[in-house]
């Protein structure tokens, strides 16, 4: 695990030198974050080391409550100050109301019941018989009675001696000579994630057979549930499937409530991306405030005049394809694969190319499609998810099923020759179009009865998608229909 952590940290340290060059503000070092879309991040900051010769104890609270202790790297970025870390301790047991109740178990404290009729606070004494736990209620003795709840807001003594207010890292560092330096601290933390979302806005539909020009907006949504606020962080986002061992005992932040922050309207430097190793790295090129429990959105892509095509597809079989898995496989039941549905699916396709005003590798995420009606109002018409999409690949957005376009599929002939190890069957597929314009439809058929197959007759040409799938491209006239017939012979 440590080798894997080291590899990720070394990569993160290589891609950003900003953590060591940012000036300290307000006594705290700013943080540079590289957030991965696998619920973890690499955090980089600086720790001011004022070392004397011999053994030193150094403490920092500029860490999260979900830090992986064995991922911590503390080093002199210049490599000039020799020191050795002899011991490291990490404590994430940050004090909260429940831990204070446990600390004062068996003791009497005050409880605030709220404002009394005379305007003063109504304060009562209560003895904490039992602090309570996940599956237990607290038990408080107050005014001579026992209550399975607190009689008011607990008021603890002001002294915080021995109480941990923030997650803390402590080191024992051996130095051969006095030194003062800003050491670089890097570590992996859980509880941080990001995802991409895309919105496509299409104009009023006029000609469904021709490509149209749309606007495309991309957003990154970052979530911080690390248990720590980042008031000013330089953020990068890593896209791709980075190898990461899942923590067997994950740490959970004390506050899991997510609030939605206002989308950032920022007219500064735009988001940039670069190829990094076998992944893609996106830099927000700005500092961002990201509080614990907060969800924040930043726009990273805005493109106009993007060409989008509409594709109709009729896959009439109701039974899922059963791909051949062994030699000699065959199914000679006449009813196999004869089910039919009427739905013709619609999807939008966008080429992610520079010529199409895009060309940035697009991270995986949800994509939504809106269309303007005759009054100019946007209406939602479909959504789906896309994988990481490199430059010059095609983005495909599911829209749904066409209302005015339907299909019908039926088997018109079937014959099996067991001695000759052959099966012949014929299908007729009809696509009807009630629109006022012609449409192009891809009719998809699956060859699943046996290991070997051959189309013996067809009413129109087809293309082979893969070893068991064919596609008939057809045009259906307005207020009309088009039929496709084909015969296939299976052998085994």
How would you characterize the overall build of this protein?
By secondary structure, the chain is mostly beta strands. The chain folds into 3 domains: 1-79 and 179-190 and 227-292, no CATH class; 97-155, no CATH class; 305-491, no CATH class. Helix content is 5%, strand content 53%. The protein has helices spanning 2-15, 18-21, 97-103; strands spanning 31-36, 40-51, 54-60, 73-75, 83-91, 108-115, 121-130, 139-142, 145-147, 153-155, 168-175, 179-190, 192-202, 212-224, 230-239, 259-260, 272-276, 279-290, 294-315, 343-351, 365-372, 378-386, 394-417, 422-433, 439-446, 452-458, 463-466, 469-476, 480-491. The strands form 4 sheets. Strands 13, 14, 16, 19, 20, 21, 22, 23, 24, 25, 26, 27, 28 and 29 form a 14-stranded mixed beta sheet that branches. A 7-stranded mixed beta sheet has the order 4-12-2-1-15-18-17. The chain has a 5-stranded antiparallel beta sheet with strand order 9-8-7-6-10. A hairpin with a 2-residue loop joins β17 (272-276) and β18 (279-290). The chain is elongated, with a radius of gyration of 32 Å. It starts with a helix and ends with a strand.
Keywords:
492 residues, mainly beta, 3 domains, 14-stranded mixed beta sheet, 7-stranded mixed beta sheet, 3 helices, elongated
Topology (elements, then pairings):
Elements: H1 2-15, H2 18-21, E1 31-36, E2 40-51, E3 54-60, E4 73-75, E5 83-91, H3 97-103, E6 108-115, E7 121-130, E8 139-142, E9 145-147, E10 153-155, E11 168-175, E12 179-190, E13 192-202, E14 212-224, E15 230-239, E16 259-260, E17 272-276, E18 279-290, E19 294-315, E20 343-351, E21 365-372, E22 378-386, E23 394-417, E24 422-433, E25 439-446, E26 452-458, E27 463-466, E28 469-476, E29 480-491
Parallel strand pairs: 1-15, 13-21, 16-19, 19-25
Antiparallel strand pairs: 1-2, 2-12, 3-11, 4-12, 5-11, 6-7, 6-10, 7-8, 8-9, 13-14, 14-19, 15-18, 17-18, 19-20, 20-23, 21-22, 23-24, 24-29, 25-28, 26-29, 27-28
